[in-house]
């Protein structure tokens, strides 16, 4: 198994132990464009739930301050929390699948190794 395949998979699997640090380190210190590409994709999919959580918290705060209705704040807040939760689960599944594909990819597989 090549180091490139392991680094590609590690970029995606780092979601479970160091979601920002590992892809950034691989992106900066990697020597190949293919590995840098996978690190960028993994970093993007690790950042999306964080951005969604921040937007959810800000939205709940804005709605809470702008209305006097606890029902509206609760309804909007719950809807956003559920949406971000679903997005987080989908992105976690995506990262697991891409990590497994990276480990199982053949060295000459242009579909998985391309940076298109």
TrEMBL record:
Membrane-protein topology: Multi-pass membrane protein
Main localization category: membrane
Keyword match Transmembrane helix: yes
The entry's keywords: Membrane, Transmembrane, Transmembrane helix
InterPro entries: MamF_MmsF
Keyword Metal-binding: no
Localisation per UniProt entry: Membrane
Transmembrane segments: 6-29, 41-63, 75-97
Protein name: DUF4870 domain-containing protein
Source organism of the structure: Listeria weihenstephanensis
């Amino acid at each position: 198994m090549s180091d490139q395949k392991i680094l590609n998979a590690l970029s995606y699997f780092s979601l479970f132990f160091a979601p920002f640090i590992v892809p950034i380190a691989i992106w900066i210190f990697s020597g190949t464009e293919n590995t840098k590409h996978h690190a960028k994709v993994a970093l993007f999919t690790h950042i999306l739930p964080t951005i969604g959580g921040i937007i959810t918290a800000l939205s709940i705060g804005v709605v809470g301050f702008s209305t006097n209705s606890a029902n509206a704040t609760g309804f909007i807040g719950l809807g956003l929390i559920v949406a971000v939760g679903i997005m987080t689960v989908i992105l976690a599944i995506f990262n697991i699948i891409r990590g497994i594909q990276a480990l199982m990819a053949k060295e000459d597989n242009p579909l998985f190794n391309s940076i298109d």
